[in-house]
Automatic annotation (TrEMBL):
It comes from the Bacteria. PANTHER family: HTH-TYPE TRANSCRIPTIONAL REPRESSOR YETL (PTHR33164:SF43), TRANSCRIPTIONAL REGULATOR, MARR FAMILY (PTHR33164). SMART domains: HTH_MARR (SM00347). Pfam families: MarR_2. Residues 1-149 form the HTH marR-type domain. InterPro entries: HTH_MarR-typ, MarR/SlyA-like, WH-like_DNA-bd_sf, WH_DNA-bd_sf. SUPFAM superfamilies: Winged helix' DNA-binding domain. This is MarR family transcriptional regulator. It comes from Streptomyces caniferus.
Length: 153
């Protein structure tokens, strides 16, 4: 019996769209993880936390990292521990809430992030950003916001 793949026309559009999101997320994440680990000894989960920290001008409450990343709160705590051990982040008591801590990149953490971000971008370019135009990227961003809005509600 010959094996063949289903074509998009044989699959309902909603199923194909869902499968596409899962496929893209899995394949792109694995690609970035391999590149970051090889070049910087920095797993993609660590990079994700650093990305959120680099995007904020102020220290970020640890609880916000748990709500913003795709990691569980316990995973965020372990990642922050590992980043702190490497001297890439600092934890400071929150000025607004004595029960919580805020996390920020150290100068070394910012340097490592910038190098890792360049690696991530060059890794993704041939399979993502070079293939998509601004309209495609804006459409994906719109879809992501719609899907995520329900989670944030």
């Amino acid at each position: 019996m010959a094996k063949r793949k289903l074509t998009q026309t044989e699959m309902p559009v909603a199923d194909h769209a869902f499968y596409g999101l899962v496929w893209a997320g899995t394949v792109l994440t694995e690609r970035v993880d391999r590149a970051l680990t090889k070049a910087h000894d920095l797993p993609v989960s660590w990079f994700e936390v650093m990305l959120w920290l680099a995007s904020s001008a102020d220290p970020v409450p640890a609880s916000v990292l748990g709500n913003s990343t795709m990691l569980s709160r316990s995973q965020v705590s372990r990642v922050v521990d590992a980043l702190q051990t490497r001297g890439l982040v600092t934890r400071t008591p929150s000025a607004r809430d004595a029960r919580s801590v805020e996390v920020s990149l150290t100068p070394e953490g910012r340097r490592v992030f910038e190098e890792a971000d360049a690696t991530r971008r060059s890794c993704l370019a041939p399979v993502f950003t070079d293939l998509l135009d601004e309209e495609d990227l804006a459409a994906l961003s719109t879809v992501w916001r719609k899907l995520k809005a329900d989670k944030d509600a």
